[in-house]
Please model this.
Amino acid sequence: MKAKDESFFLGHRERLRQKFLDNKLTDYEMLELLLSFVIPRRDVRPLARGLIGHFGGIYQVLTASFNDLIRYKGVGKNTAIFIKAMHQVMISGYKSCLDKRPIFHNDKILSNYCMLLLGGKNIEEFHILYLNVDRRLLLDDLHSSGTIDWAAVYPREIVKRALDLNAKYIVLLHNHPTPNVSFSSDDIEVTTKIQEMLLPLEIELHDHYVVSGSIIYSARNMFLLK
Model:
């Protein structure tokens, strides 16, 4: 790299850092700043803009799968790991909030956690959040992984795990990889079945969430819970 080019290169990165401190970064500049730490000797502006254009936004870049990331030209294994590590740090941060306070204390924290956990997935996953008597998170259990439009649900296993953990509330959570798709008739049926199985055991179904695209659907808010 020529001295003049290197001077501009280093000056640009310093300006990015200052814009971050001034809270003035655009999304692609934020991604560019992050990429600069894992790719220190290359102009990553084209890569940052390309990733956002390809995936649809910085959130979609963070939640993209590892395999989808490394298939994009210019993203190597280390860069993909770095991006997914940032994603995991964000999930862990929200999860720690759910561990320490009731989940309804801040609905935004719960919805952000759900979006970060399942947004961008190209197959369905079904999670069970087991809560204690104070509605604090005991366990986020990946109940099953399925296909693009289906994931198995085993109500008896959910009930057994709830009893083993001495849970008093549970939250059902799954995703629809196709954007803007709400509860299916099968989703409603299994929700009702699990709720009815929990009732005699004095365990309450707090809610069932579906993450689809940029939307989170709530069974409680849609009056699908008895």
The longest helix spans residues 77-100. The first strand starts at residue 125 and ends at 131.
